[in-house]
Specification:
Chain lengths: 487, 329, 334, 307, 298
């Protein structure tokens, strides 16, 4: 009656306002809840809040709290508690990495069961974000000074934590589920949930095989094998919201020319990456917006963007004065991650076939960001191609990426694009979707982004086949409410 | 030869009030916790072509005197004058020519030869350092030196471990001779050798002296050897000179009780002369770290009186050319 | 003393010790025979490298092996062949019935064990004494060798003692089990005359008290003259002359022994005459054991050598009662 | 002696300070910063929000100022809090340090436990085929990557034999990581022991001990071992630091909960206070070990005295 | 015995020869030199002739079926991309030798220089240098590597420099202890007495006497250097994919340890053989360098 989930790293903290790493959220998702919940199409459903209303100017939101949401310490999670979360996470002192998902909050107020939030600028993705793990809400009693005690409203209660070793949760007996993707209406079936840290891949596999772990993240090597083994199940986070892509230091010639960028796009066979690099366990994805999010439209993206066509790539390159005999020399700047490494080698090979000699340069992620920030701003130097990935519960991350300066300075200095990115925030429904498609069309036609695949990180897990009911929602969050182990 | 231009009338070597106190450093910060008074104020002179024997017990400071004369050590006090010129003030450039005048044969013939250098290379080294010979001629010069000390030319290819003790000592001598010095400080050159080899080396040294007009400061603890080779003998005890006199005078009539003891202790190779000497009491040489007050010998002296414990005797000339440092003489 | 009437305590017969060197197999000791009587002091002299130490080490089977090997002969101690003993029997002899003092007092004591430990372990092992008794006995021994304040010394280490004291500790260690034979390999070479004097005195005294037979290895003829009853002269792995001490000094029969005596700088003669002169040197060197000449090994350096000497090895013959020498020309020497 | 130890400590503290200052300067010039890592995975803040986060963490100040502030805090006994999740650096490190020390100590015990006798034996049989085999073994020992040996052992003992859990986190699972680490260093120690022993075997005092009639085993154990340990201890001192460093790899393989893992993670994401704290602890251990080793010298070799 | 003895010469220990001839003879007779030399020579040839010797292009994807075990077509099997491991190992020789030799070289040279400087000069120079070594010793190699990327940028060479720097304390301490022993030996003083200046003292007298123990230490350091250079590859240091550097092949293949062990075994064996070769050769060189031909210090 215990679920043991073996992961390569441990959570940093259980303070939902202070950390934003997936590995931390995986735990917090169990202990805390969100105001809303999302279904597999991106539809917004009640969570701790029942419903919301937004003013016509899109600046004032009224959230109505659901009755009887109980914290693990017995207190009630009400509008005041929600306000406390809003206030703390958006306060500059908190230095929260998650503040951005709340939009630019001007003020908050409580009116009976309602929380009223006033924004400085329209921010239509707010309800969606409030259904995502980034906007997890803690009970105010969780924070005493600098210490965190993980008091939440979620299906699991915090028991103990031996950092870097194991984090133990037990089921919240009084839990009432409203999440649309969870079938179990009450408390989880299993009694305990233990997150165990086992850094080395083969060791995690050993733990899974020996039964020491119920779930483990296998290495790709093992996953492919397990997939064909009836004794095991492999899970691949279909709703991850993750999107991997190739992009360019687009100010350095020749990649300041859309033709050159698209040539790279034609040279790359994303299916080879998926089949060889990822052993067929992920999906090729041609859109800047990840599958499962609003605005993703695979067919349109393929039309606007590039698909594998080496001859066309060669043709364009010849136009630009490059060829197999006079290759374009470039740097392929990447950071290390399983599956991606293999993919990089494959891309390198494919580029070579059309006359681009890209030298792989691996960096530690932090150093990679720093390096790219510089390279993306340069107008001359070695042509640089790079890979990155982005995830979210809402496509609003396009702003973060492409509005200048953009993450690691990749933002494009283009007024049209900036305008579209700003506008989509004020739109809702069909209008927003259309705007998002426009943005993607712009990015693809200009070859700024060459989407590769989805998902890309923290997406793989496996269990024995007698384990049932495990699901993964947006941002690769696992849910254990329905999990049952057959004897 | 620019350095050490002879000052008129100055002896080849003069040592004045020479003292060497080794700081005893301990611990990580290497703080000085005391001094080994290895040499504690000695004076003597050595003429051109003369041999002065320096005798004394192990650890009394003989090798230290040698090191000071070659300026391998910086003295705590006093001066060493070579032809009237104080070597303490020689700068870097002047030191080299000085090295050509004074050379040393080291105490341990094996340890003082670089185990990884062939004999030829070793003897050639001084030529190279002092640019005494053109590159092509060095080999000839070395060969000539080998002849001179009685080594065969083929020996140039050998390494020190392939030589016998006597040959090693010859090698050291050849190396010292390479610079054509006027004075050789020979630090126990024969004490590691057995009698037949010892005779060979001593004979070699006397021959060289006769032929080249060398002066020797001959250090040994074997008074029989010293007696054989020296014209004058100086006796050291715990960093001090206690007696210095011409050979015959000293051997015939030692004045210092320590010299007497030393002479007495030498076994005579004649079984019929088994002497009825009094049993020596096991007495230890005091530590130079903490030498006795007064006369340093008083702890072992059969004749010691009260004043020996308090007052330090000075070296006086009690008979012509016979100096001794003892209250009782 | 009639040597042949008493059974010797130690007798070496035709001992041959070889070393496997980089240049081939060589005999460091080649057919050495000699006997040691009870209570006697036998001095062994000879040039460096002639095999004195190897002979001594062979008695206790301490030859480093490889490269050394006792290739032949017999060593009988009190009627038992030491070379045939099983390891346990050998251990019981070493340091107990026969003990040894080495040339280098500086390095022959273990620098990291206390004097007490090193002195008592032999007693504990051989005499099965308890620690307390062993310590008492040790203190007694140290007192005997005139070490001041012996109790305090037990806790000290070798480096805290002077050279003379170290050698005395070595002697105390060798004598602790009251051995019947003491082998002293150049016990005073590393020491000064004044200290040497003390050590020699001590050995004489101990010998008188305990009746120990001594093999004294040295190249100092002065020491020989003072200490020995009988002398064996070695050259190139063989004994070439053996005689009572007076006989040897009065009338050496082998040219090598003569050369040795002549080469000595002698204080007694010097101080009398006061004149300096050349020492009589023997030309040449001891032959390398890897390249032994045929015939008499000394022939290449011998002023009296004849063609016979270069071709045939001379026999070891008794020339006068108790005086043996191996020289073709012994009878004809001036 | 006390005096000496006190002086050693003063120098040690000076080195620690130098290390802290050195590492503080170093980590700030290394590309990448913690804020980037905080937002790397899921959040997408605006540039102003990023600036705010930097300010809140004090990262907007000049490097020297941050270093001085940090030093001030260290002097008042505060090692700060992790940028990621704000747990106390001191608490976490001191909580984990015993694990790493236990691992390092166990590895050292195994390394010496294997290396010493093997080196001893090889020296005793110098030049024979046994000696050669042991030398090849030593080469194998240093050439096998630790992660490889570790994984093989892990898979063998936990999957094939089912004797040990993959990650129990308790002292049962100290064995395999310690063996893994120990094997590498046992090879080095074996070689050092061998050469030290060979030198000691030629010493006169060994002959003295034999001449005393002591059985060969006793001669070796009592007379030859201790003097050769002096050389071995030197190499142990040098090896210990590398062993602490090597612990990072092995802690990962065996999920052993030591400071090595914290180090790697903190460095990867530029968790400055954590890195600084780690270096402080790591350097302290290293410096203390070298003091201990020096004291061990004095214990092994009475000729060495410190005053 | 007498019949076969050579003509007698009392001082003739060995026939006198020119030093060079003797050196060559000693070298030629040394079994370790032969064995180690042949091993290293084979490696060098493999390194140089890799394109000729390797049956496949080492970076060509899908040269064979993915993850196929050793077979006739693929002697060492194939990796996860279907690349031929045999060809990769062969092509990796040059790169790996380069990594190991340069990293060890840097550590050894810098360490020896510091050790010699400290041991020779003594006094405050010694204090400063050795405290500096202690200081360096408190930095884990990963931090040193990061600092280096910061200043020099990522590259294989910088990885080797980083590994080299991180082992400097090791070599410095070993050298220092040897130098202390040597410089207090009388031959050193004797050389001073004939007027040798410090360059000569260090180069002619100190170096030849400290090289042999360092050879031993350095040959053991080779594999450690290759493995740690590989461990740093994720920092952007070290060989970059798809370069077939052995250490990197080992590091990348670790997830296949159970499924396709040959991916790890063959590069691992290659490292072992190389280290063994260097070790044996080092032993031989040490013997040859030592005119006494003692086989003591290892
Ligand atoms: N570098 C040094 N540092 C400290 N003490 C020293 C040093 N050199 C020599 N001494 C000490 O100085 C004293 C005299 O030493 P020295 O070597 O001059 O004696 P010696 O008369 O040559 O003895 P021996 O006959 O044994 O060669 C000894 O007590 C020795 O320990
Ligand atoms: N371990 C060894 N290996 C090789 N040869 C050896 C060894 N020990 C001794 N010999 C050789 O045996 C011969 C006799 O040596 P031994 O030590 O008995 O001489 P010794 O007469 O005691 O000389 P010394 O007066 O110098 O002590 C020498 O030629 C020596 O080279
Ligand atoms: Mg001396
Ligand atoms: Mg001897």
């Amino acid at each position: 009656d215990t679920i043991i989930y073996a992961r390569p790293q441990d959570a940093d903290s259980l303070d939902a306002h202070k950390v934003s790493t997936t590995i931390s959220f995986q735990v917090m998702q169990q202990v805390y809840n969100t105001l809303f919940s999302l279904d597999d199409k991106g539809g917004i459903h009640p969570g701790m809040a029942e419903k919301w209303q937004v003013s016509d100017d899109g600046l004032t939101y009224r959230f109505t709290m659901r009755d009887g949401v109980m914290c693990h310490d017995g207190s009630t999670f009400d509008a005041a508690a929600a306000k406390w979360n809003f206030d703390r996470v958006t306060s500059p002192e908190t230095a929260s990495p998650n503040g951005s998902s709340y939009g630019e909050v001007a003020s908050t107020a409580v009116e009976g069961k309602d929380l009223i939030v006033t924004l400085k600028a329209a921010y239509s993705p707010l309800p969606a974000f409030l259904g995502g793990v980034l906007s997890i809400m803690m009970c105010p009693s969780a924070i005493q000074g600098e210490d965190v005690t993980a008091v939440g409203t979620g299906p699991w209660k915090y028991v103990s934590w031996d950092r870097n070793n194991e984090l133990v949760l037990e089921r919240n007996e009084g839990y009432k589920n409203v999440h649309p993707l969870i079938k179990n209406p009450g408390a989880p079936y299993m009694k305990r949930l233990v997150f165990k840290t086992i850094p080395e891949g083969p060791a995690r596999m050993a733990a899974l095989r020996s039964g020491e772990a119920t779930f483990a993240e296998p290495s790709l090597a093992d996953a492919a094998e397990l997939k064909n083994d009836p004794e095991y199940k492999v899970y691949t986070a279909p709703l991850s919201g993750q999107q991997a892509y190739v992009a360019f230091a687009h100010k350095i010639p020749p990649f300041d020319d859309p033709r050159a960028r698209r040539a790279v796009g034609y040279a790359i066979d994303r299916n080879a990456c998926v089949d060889i690099g990822f052993q067929g366990l992920v999906e090729a994805s041609a859109c800047p917006i990840a599958p499962g999010l609003v605005g993703h439209d695979g067919a349109k993206c393929e039309e606007w963007g590039t698909t594998y066509d080496p001859d066309k790539a060669k043709e364009i390159l010849a136009e630009l004065g490059y060829g197999l005999d006079k290759p374009l020399k470039a740097i392929f700047s990447v950071s290390q991650l399983q599956g991606w490494d293999e993919c990089h080698v494959i891309i390198q090979q494919q580029l070579k076939e059309v006359g681009i000699e890209a030298e792989i340069e691996t960096r530690q992620f932090a150093a990679w960001v720093d390096h790219m920030s510089k390279v993306n701003d340069m107008t001359e130097g070695t042509p640089t191609i790079w890979t990155m990935g982005m995830s979210g519960v809402d496509p609003d991350y396009l702003v973060f990426l492409w509005q200048r300066p953009g993450y690691a300075n990749q933002g494009i200095e283009d007024a049209t694009l900036d305008g579209m990115l700003r506008e989509q925030r004020a739109l809702t429904g069909e209008a927003r979707t259309a705007k998002l498609l426009d943005i993607q069309r712009f990015l693809l036609e200009n070859g700024y982004e060459i989407p590769l695949f989805s998902p890309g990180w923290f997406w793989l897990s496996a269990s024995k086949s007698n384990v049932d009911g495990f699901i993964q929602i947006q941002v690769a969050m696992p849910l254990f409410n329905d999990v049952q182990i057959k004897e | 030869m620019t350095a050490a231009r002879p000052a008129a009338g100055a002896p080849l070597l003069e040592v004045r009030d020479l003292a060497m106190h080794f700081p005893v450093r301990r611990g990580l910060l290497q703080r000085t916790v005391g001094h080994v008074r290895a040499v504690d104020g000695i004076s003597f002179a050595l003429a051109e072509g003369e041999t002065l024997g320096l005798v004394g017990e192990s650890g009394c400071g003989k090798s230290t005197v040698g090191g000071l004369i070659l300026r391998l050590l910086e003295p705590t006090a006093g001066s060493v004058l070579v032809r009237g010129r104080d070597i303490a003030h020689l700068g870097r450039g002047e030191l080299k020519p000085f090295r050509r005048e004074v050379q040393m044969v080291f105490q341990d013939p094996y340890a003082s030869l670089d185990p990884r250098q062939s004999a030829g290379a070793m003897v050639a080294e001084p030529f190279a350092i002092h640019s005494l010979a053109a590159r092509g001629e060095i080999r000839d010069q070395v060969a000539r030196l080998f002849d001179r000390v009685g080594l065969r030319r083929e020996h140039m290819q050998r390494y020190p471990h392939e030589f016998s003790g006597g040959q090693r000592q010859r090698l050291s001598i050849a190396r010292a001779l390479a610079l054509n010095p006027r004075l050789i400080v020979a630090d126990e050159p024969v004490s590691a050798l057995d009698v037949s080899i010892q005779a060979q080396v001593i004979n070699l040294m006397t021959t060289l002296q006769r032929e080249l007009g060398l002066a020797y400061l001959f250090i040994s603890h074997d008074i029989a050897v010293i007696g054989h080779i020296s014209q004058r003998i100086a006796v050291m005890y715990l960093g001090k000179l206690v007696e210095i006199a011409p050979r015959a005078t000293l051997l015939a009539g030692p004045l210092h009780p320590y010299t007497e003891m030393l002479l007495n202790a030498v076994p005579i190779p004649n079984p019929r002369l088994k002497r009825k000497h009094q049993r020596a009491v096991a007495s230890e040489v005091p530590s130079p770290l903490n030498p006795p007050t007064g006369c340093r010998f008083h702890t072992r002296c059969p004749l010691a009186e009260a004043r020996c414990r308090s007052a330090e005797p000075v070296l006086r000339e009690v008979r012509p050319r016979h100096h001794v440092a003892c209250h009782l003489r | 003393m009639a040597a042949d009437t008493v059974r010797p305590i130690l007798s070496i017969r035709d001992l041959r010790v070889t070393f496997q060197g980089g240049l081939g197999l060589a005999a460091a000791v080649d057919g050495v025979s000699c006997e040691l009587q009870r209570g006697e002091t036998l001095a062994v002299v000879g040039e460096s490298g002639c095999g004195k130490s190897v002979t001594a080490l062979s008695i206790l089977r301490l030859i480093p092996s490889p490269p050394g090997r006792i290739a032949g002969g017999a060593i009988e101690f009190d009627g038992r062949d030491l070379l045939a003993l099983a390891p346990e029997e050998l251990y019981a002899v070493r340091g107990n019935a026969i003990s040894m003092i080495f040339q280098e007092p500086m390095t022959s004591l273990n620098p990291v064990l206390s004097i007490g430990t090193q002195l008592t372990e032999g007693l504990i092992f051989h005499k099965r004494l308890g620690i307390r008794e062993a310590r008492e006995r040790t203190v007694e021994m140290l007192r005997l060798v005139q070490i001041p304040d012996p109790e305090a010394r037990l806790a000290q280490y070798a480096h805290q003692l002077s050279g003379g004291m170290r050698q005395r500790v070595m002697i105390a260690m060798a004598l602790a089990c009251e051995p019947r034979v003491l082998i002293a390999d150049e016990p005073t070479t590393a020491l000064d005359v004044t200290i040497q004097r003390q050590i020699l005195d001590l050995m004489v005294e101990l010998k008188e008290r305990l009746g120990t037979a001594i093999i004294l290895i040295t190249h100092d003829l002065g020491v020989v003259a003072e200490m020995a009853d009988r002398v064996a002269v070695m050259y190139a792995g063989k004994i070439i002359e053996q005689a009572p001490v007076d006989g040897l000094f009065d009338h050496p029969r082998h040219p090598y022994t003569r050369g040795l005596m002549a080469a000595l700088p002698r204080l007694d003669r010097l101080s009398a005459s006061g004149e300096e002169g050349r020492l009589n040197e023997m030309p040449g060197l001891v032959p390398s054991i890897y390249a032994m000449p045929p015939g008499c090994a000394f022939a290449p350096r011998c002023p009296f050598a004849t063609s016979q000497c270069h071709a045939e090895e001379p026999a070891f013959e008794e020339l006068s009662p108790g005086h043996y020498a191996a020289c073709w020309e012994a009878g004809r020497l001036p | 002696m006390t005096n000496y130890i006190i002086r050693r400590f003063i120098v040690a503290v000076a080195i620690l300070f130098a290390s802290i200052i050195g590492v503080s300067l170093l980590i700030h010039v290394v590309p990448g910063d913690p804020v980037i890592m905080m937002i790397a995975q899921n959040s997408n803040p605006s540039p102003e929000q990023i600036e705010n986060m930097r300010k809140a963490l004090g990262l907007d100040r000049p490097v020297w100022e941050q270093t001085v502030i940090y030093l001030g805090k260290v002097l008042s006994g505060d090692l700060g809090r992790s940028i990621f999740g704000s747990q106390s650096v001191a608490m976490l490190l001191f909580d984990r340090l015993p694990n790493t020390l236990a691992l390092a100590a166990a590895a050292m015990v195994i390394a010496t436990g294997i290396g010493l006798p093997l080196g001893f034996f090889a020296a005793y049989r110098q030049g024979t085929w046994i000696d050669s085999v042991l030398m090849v073994g030593a080469v194998l020992g240093v050439s096998i990557p630790q992660f490889w040996l570790g994984l093989i052992l892990l898979l063998f003992f936990s999957l094939t034999l089912e004797w040990l859990p993959v990650a129990s986190g308790d002292y049962r699972s100290l064995l395999l990581p310690a063996v893994t680490l120990g094997v590498t260093y046992s090879a080095i120690i074996a070689r050092m022991t061998r050469s030290a022993m060979i030198e000691v075997f030629t010493e006169d005092f060994i002959r003295t001990a034999r001449a005393k009639g002591l059985p060969e085993a006793l001669v070796l154990r009592r007379h030859a071992l201790k003097p050769s340990l002096i050389a071995v201890v030197t190499i142990i001192a040098v090896v210990f630091g590398y062993l602490m460093g090597g612990a990072v790899v092995v802690e990962n393989v065996f999920a052993w909960n030591g400071i090595g893992r914290i180090a790697l993670e903190s460095i990867n994401r530029r968790d400055y206070p954590m890195i600084q704290g780690f270096i402080l602890v790591f350097a302290t251990v290293i410096v203390l070990i070298s003091i201990l080793i020096d004291l061990a010298y004095a214990w092994l070799d009475p000729r060495i005295t410190y005053r | 015995m007498a019949a076969t003895a050579p003509p007698y010469d009392p001082t003739n220990v060995a026939a006198e020869e020119l030093p060079r001839t003797r050196w060559w003879r000693r070298t030629a007779r040394n079994r370790s030199i032969w064995l180690g030399g042949v091993l290293i020579a084979v490696l060098a040839i493999v390194a140089l002739l890799a394109p000729v010797l390797a049956p496949y292009d080492p970076t060509k994807l899908a040269a064979g079926k993915r993850l196929s075990p050793p077979s006739w077509e693929h002697a060492f099997g194939t990796d996860e991309f279907g690349r031929d491991i045999f060809s990769r190992v062969i092509h990796g020789t040059q790169l790996t030798l380069y990594v190991g030799v340069v990293a060890v070289g840097i550590g050894l040279l810098a360490g020896a220089a510091i050790g010699i400087g400290a041991g020779y000069a003594g006094g405050w120079v010694q204090a400063v240098l050795m405290r500096g070594v202690d200081f360096l010793y408190t930095f884990p190699d990963i931090l040193i590597a990061l600092g280096l990327v910061a200043f020099l940028g990522p590259s294989l060479t910088n990885a080797m420099v980083a590994v080299g720097i991180s082992v400097v304390p090791y070599y410095a301490r070993v050298t220092y202890s040897v130098v202390l022993v040597e410089r207090n030996k009388p031959y050193f003083e004797a050389a001073t007495a004939i007027g040798a200046g410090w360059p000569r003292l260090v180069v002619r007298h100190l170096l030849p006497n400290i090289v042999p123990p360092l050879i031993v230490v350095a040959t053991l350091g080779f594999s450690a250097a290759v493995l740690s250079a590989a461990a740093l590859s994720f920092l952007g240091l070290g060989a970059q994919p798809p370069a077939p550097e052995w250490g990197k092949m080992l590091a990348d293949g670790r997830n296949y340890i159970a499924r396709a062990p040959w991916i790890l075994v063959f590069p691992g064996l290659a490292i072992v053989v190389t280290v063994l070769g260097f070790n044996i050769l080092g032993d031989g060189i040490r013997d040859v360098l030592d005119p006494r031909q003692r086989r003591e210090v290892r």
